[in-house]
Amino acid sequence: MKVHVHAAIADIDADAWDQLLGPEPNPFLRHSFLSLMEQSGSASPQTGWIPRHLAIVEDGLLVAAAPTYVKTHSMGEFVYDWGWAHLAQQLKVEYYPKLVVAVPFSPVVGPRLLTAPGRGELREALVGGLLELNRMLGCHGVHVLFNTPEEAQALEAFGARTRLQTQSWWRNLDYGDFDAFLMEGLPRKRRKEVRRERRRLGETSLRMERVRAPDPVRLQVMSAFYRRTCRMYGGNSYLNDRVWKMLPESPFLEHVQLTLGWDGDEPIAGAFNVQGPQRLYGRYWGSADDRPFLHFEACYYQGIEHCIQEGLQVFEPGHGGRHKKPRGFDPALTHSSHWLVNQRLATVLDRFLAEESASVRARLLA
Q: What pTM does this model have?
């Protein structure tokens, strides 16, 4: 058994990587997504995402791997550990660079330590490889982001500290249609408000369209909306122009689902989603028109309708957002696992994590 470190996902065979993902692969863990992010330059050394993917080979076969990057900042991760970095500065210890096991720009839950079926024992070898790589590269911590609850619990046995956060997810309870969701999933007051929002939009010339594997023209429309949102709200444009140009030829296109709003022949809004075997993931939104309730329709209600139509079980519309719970999205715990080199920093963060975890769990029960 040999442990290899790769400076590009392209150095690892795509089929061999994807076979580690199991029968219902998370689309963000697919080789095609990671390759798109790296080959476009969106996740690259120039943007502070330095690929150092871990791979374990046995008898010439890839049996375990982890999508791994050296990071000199915390942008595009969504675990929000800038406070940790500030604390390290106060303690006069280093926090960056750090080793991050994650999918770039995508706070979606999934396994991060990938092993061949029936080879769960290889997690220990991956952990050992990550800690050794952290030491060799002079990094100051290993951070496994948005892993599954089962994986986070397993990694505690190897000394990882677990951090809890929350997102808001919609769950499909075998609703027959959107109206059935309203009747069964929302209280009367909220049903009336949602219907009012949709009715007001319906009284305009708005036409909504949902498209799987969209054509280049629609992708360019969506890219313009994406850039406008980033400009308006001061967000980082994590996806550069090359992503949108490369998508039509990328195998990842089959996972892309767009919701577009049209006023006649003029596109006025769009939501960029990613579809997996059982889940829809809301990622990006933008518009050329600020009419009321358009955001809720494009990003939430159309996604819910799509999940009901396609039989998808969960809709993860993105990280954060106080507008989601009143529209049928319930709180869900997310996990990440952390090893910190400096023990002073680790000791202080242990107290913080205990208090934060108690607070997060209390909010879930409120």
A: 0.96
**What tens-digit pLDDT sequence spans the chain (366 residues)?**
899 999 999 999 999 999 999 999 999 999 999 999 999 999 999 999 999 999 999 999 999 999 999 999 999 999 999 999 999 999 999 999 999 999 999 999 999 999 999 999 999 999 999 999 999 999 999 999 999 999 999 999 999 999 999 999 999 999 999 999 999 999 999 999 999 999 998 888 899 999 999 999 999 999 999 999 998 877 778 999 999 999 999 999 999 999 999 999 999 999 999 999 999 999 999 999 888 899 999 999 999 999 999 999 999 998 876 789 899 999 999 999 999 999 999 999 999 999 999 999 998 887
Cα-Cα end-to-end distance for the chain: 49
Q: CA 91, CA 67: separation in Å to the nearest integer?
A: 30
Comparing C-alpha atoms, which of 159, 129, 123 is closest to residue 20?
Answer: 123
Closest CA relative to residue 340, chosen from 166, 102, 88:
88
Asked if 249 contacts 283 with a C-beta cutoff of 8 angstroms, the reply is no
Question: Could you check whether the bond before residue 97 is cis, i.e. omega within 30 degrees of 0?
Answer: yes
Alpha-carbon gap, residue 49 to 37, rounded angstroms: 10
Helix (H, G, I), strand (E, B) or coil at 108: coil
Interatomic CA distance for residues 345 and 93, integer angstroms: 8
H-type helices in the chain, by residue range? Answer: 14-18, 31-39, 82-90, 122-136, 149-156, 178-185, 188-202, 216-233, 241-246, 294-296, 302-310, 343-365
Amino acid symbol at 85: A
